[in-house]
Amino acid sequence: xxxxxxxxxxxxxxxxxxxxxxxxxxxxxxxxxxxxxxxxxxxxxxxxxxxxxxxxxxxxxxxxxxxxxxxxxxxxxxxxxxxxxxxxxxxxxxxxxxxxxxxxxxxxxxxxxxxxxxxxx
Length: 121
Prior knowledge:
Number of helices: 0
Largest sheet: 7 strands, mixed
Order of helices and strands: EEEEEEEEEEE
Distance between the termini: 41 Å
Strand content: over 45%
Shape: elongated
Radius of gyration: 14 Å
């Protein structure tokens, strides 16, 4: 019924930038929070950034000042602008969203398929 479709990952050198996007498609009435997580090999999945319905963002300490999360509610899309990338940012990045399909606002949690970000020296 609902899919989160991610794009924008790739291979870049340290100091360069990438912009990830995640669009909620299908039967979408309303979206509450949206977030980006990442998981590197051998590590736990960690929360990178969250953006709430009115646009208030939060960030994990290691990305503050470098990453910016934003959303376009009209397009049901969340973005992650990643600047000054470091090798330690290398991970699979996953989009997460709380989506209601009808006006009863019964929210369910959905995950994107993951997109690889690789940062080389």
